[in-house]
Amino acid sequence: MTSRSHYHALCQQFKTIYHFEHLQALGDWDQATMMPAGGSQARGEAMAQLALHIHALKTAPSLAEHLAHAADEPLSAAQQANLREMRYQQRQATALPGKLVQAKTQLTYACEHAWRAQRQQNDWQGFKPNLEAVIALVREEAQILGEAQQLAPYDALLNKFEPGTTMAQIDRVFGDLKIWLPSLIQQVQAKQQAWPTKALPHATIAQQKALNLDVMTLLGFDFKQGRLDTSSHPFSGGVPGDVRITTRYDEHDFLTALFSTIHETGHARYEQGLPLEWRGQPAGNARSMAIHESQSLFFEMQMARGTGILPLLQQRINHHLGCQISELELQHWLTRVSPGRIRVDADEVTYPCHIMLRYEVEKGLIEGRLTVADLPEFWDAAMQSLLGLSTQGDYRNGCMQDIHWPVGELGYFPSYSLGAMYAAQFSASMQNQIGSIDALIAAGELTLVTQWLQDNIWSKGALLTTDELVIAATGETLNPAHFKQHLMTRYL
Amino acid sequence: MTSRSHYHALCQQFKTIYHFEHLQALGDWDQATMMPAGGSQARGEAMAQLALHIHALKTAPSLAEHLAHAADEPLSAAQQANLREMRYQQRQATALPGKLVQAKTQLTYACEHAWRAQRQQNDWQGFKPNLEAVIALVREEAQILGEAQQLAPYDALLNKFEPGTTMAQIDRVFGDLKIWLPSLIQQVQAKQQAWPTKALPHATIAQQKALNLDVMTLLGFDFKQGRLDTSSHPFSGGVPGDVRITTRYDEHDFLTALFSTIHETGHARYEQGLPLEWRGQPAGNARSMAIHESQSLFFEMQMARGTGILPLLQQRINHHLGCQISELELQHWLTRVSPGRIRVDADEVTYPCHIMLRYEVEKGLIEGRLTVADLPEFWDAAMQSLLGLSTQGDYRNGCMQDIHWPVGELGYFPSYSLGAMYAAQFSASMQNQIGSIDALIAAGELTLVTQWLQDNIWSKGALLTTDELVIAATGETLNPAHFKQHLMTRYL
Ligand SMILES: [Zn+2]
Ligand SMILES: [Zn+2]
């Protein structure tokens, strides 16, 4: 029994950490959906205290000692994977001083809170000093994390969300994209020029909510294990067993809420489908944020903009909104390519441009080539060059549009494009193995599609590394060619 | 500086505890209002872990050491009061083993969760073993707390909610009540026999919600510092700065939701009015649960069923519900005395009977004279004797109706009747000092009424003991004669 005891002790300690992370997830969700403004300060302080406590648990000397000895114990492959994830979390935590973790939580809570109002008022001057403070802290964090892992500072940030990712890899992927994407965008726009434009029907929030709940049910969301709410920025939160997704409503554009809901439903089903027997252990977590986004984008792009699901969506839309949209009209809405200022409203063809811009900004901020003061000008120039749009003076739809920087989450954005690429790769692999998404759904077998994801992705938790997971599911590591092929097939 | 250091260190430690109690309040609120069933187990475990952690913070040796030395430091009267409250909390925590605290949290979370369904299904057989397990733990808790404070076990439970209260005191108060209350109930019923009975108008949930929000605004609820939601059992939760009250809706009885909302608004304004400069410290808390209930009952009974506010309520009801209720009809509804099975729906005259029954049950359960198995029979007999009603076979409206026992909160019920008595005493005192509630509100000076409460009760936090607080506000300690006088004046 002695030989198992270190690993067993680690499982206990990480279970305790999991319980406090549960409270962290709840506090974050509530702050975005329910909390009145007056609660902000006390919540920020409580969350900072909680972050400090979780940090203390992960950096406890006893945990390091058990980790040092557990590797010598006879463990199953799955237990070894759990140990690998434990070690990763412990190293990430140990690298950072607790004071920095606490300070960052409190600072970003305040910055995000202020940003909500500042963004609405297009108040760049008010936001700027707050963002400067956040960026200064994140640069410190990146520096420390990088030194601990012998990584460049920005690589260390990328690794927080997708372990193993490097700027070299992203540069290669985006470098390739930059070669073929601009001409593809032009070709698609030329092809779609003849498409008639028709305004979306007006839809009350109540109608939209009923529609969204219906579509979530169609997509297998388990309402005994989750809920849908409203927030100014859609997200998926909560914990497995209680997954909480949000959307936001625009009475003149029901598709925004519907498709953000479908996106978050993809995240949610991943969480709801994580391996029950590993719940509460690091190996039971989702693999990474790129894989997480691959699941949401699989739902939003691969499934929900395809031809197979089209009649099912059409019928539900017409039913709940009391309108008479044709299949063709809907298809045009769902696949129209049109450069815009807002990332979250972008179509899947122009979306990577938004990511490439943010990636360049983040690298520049972290490596010191760019300051927060430079941001608006840099942003405007990049949007002009990438999508031919000016954002001058329009901060709210320019460099103030995303929640990621106010909350200090630099290094996350590339996960979206990696996710889109993984999603295309999974889709291609599924097609080879059991048939295309469109064909399966048209044949009434939507559950076969999600079962494939359950078997190949969700049930694996973090038991495999990203590369192991993707190879097991598709036979190869990340291959952006599938994404290119997907766009060409669907849009040309 | 050395002389101040122990007290200062204590303030830091209690601030940390306050942050974790913030998360506890959030978890409790969410569990009752938002959480899907699937989240129950993980939440229960996380809350038990949190309770254990708070217990560990309160029982830390360093905290005891600072407490031992702080008394020798030169402290202001307010700081001494804060120290008194710290010491009380520390003693209460230290008496109980952490394992018991954790086990009780987890057990009562599960029991409450199951009870929600069992109550609906009138499933006494399913509920009984769960309640037996909770009562066994609470008996252990009472035993340990009693020994630590040299109190009888049930006195120790009373002290959790109202420090200083004893069975001897409650027995005296209730003994007196039993003498005059039954004949008063009969007299009032005889007087009201001639009142016409008229059904309440049907009201949608949306109409009721708008009405409730309007009345909350009238009563000074600050929506920047709180919110109103729905739960199966109305309560007031959250934290000062973010006070969350709930109600439940019945389309055939809008008064249930309205008056539970008014009740909880009283709790909420107390929390919102606590001294800002003491926020996060024990002296900044509400005084006790009896004083808390005195504020909710002041709002619900003293203010909202009086003649002064009647036209203001009438106008808002007719506006939001689109009906034409007369002042007299409304007054009859608000003051009709009618024995019923459900405590929370009881009028203020028969309400004490419900409390006396529960008080006898709790004493019996804790002192071992009564078992859980005896409950239905005891309940039926007591209801027959007190109010002339049988509850045989109707467990859901009998001994399964309250949330207090599933969650292990024995010792709380007397706070309601003490609160009603304090409310009447405050009302009488206010009348002497600035005029009667009804006269002030009729003169458009509702804010003078709440300002009196702000000055005399809310702003004092826990800086005074209950007796000190009540003497400062009214010139005497608890005097039930005011309650008797109030009922006679209003109902005879
Ligand atoms: Zn996403
Ligand atoms: Zn109350």
UniProtKB/TrEMBL annotation, chains A, B:
It comes from the Bacteria. SUPFAM superfamilies: Metalloproteases ('zincins'), catalytic domain. It is an enzyme of class 3 (hydrolase). Keywords: Carboxypeptidase, Hydrolase, Metal-binding, Metalloprotease, Protease. It catalyses: Release of a C-terminal amino acid with broad specificity, except for -Pro. GO terms for molecular function: carboxypeptidase activity. It holds the Pfam family Peptidase_M32. Its EC number is 3.4.17.19. PANTHER family: CARBOXYPEPTIDASE 1, METAL-DEPENDENT CARBOXYPEPTIDASE. Broad specificity carboxypetidase that releases amino acids sequentially from the C-terminus, including neutral, aromatic, polar and basic residues. Belongs to the peptidase M32 family. This is Metal-dependent carboxypeptidase. It comes from Shewanella algidipiscicola.
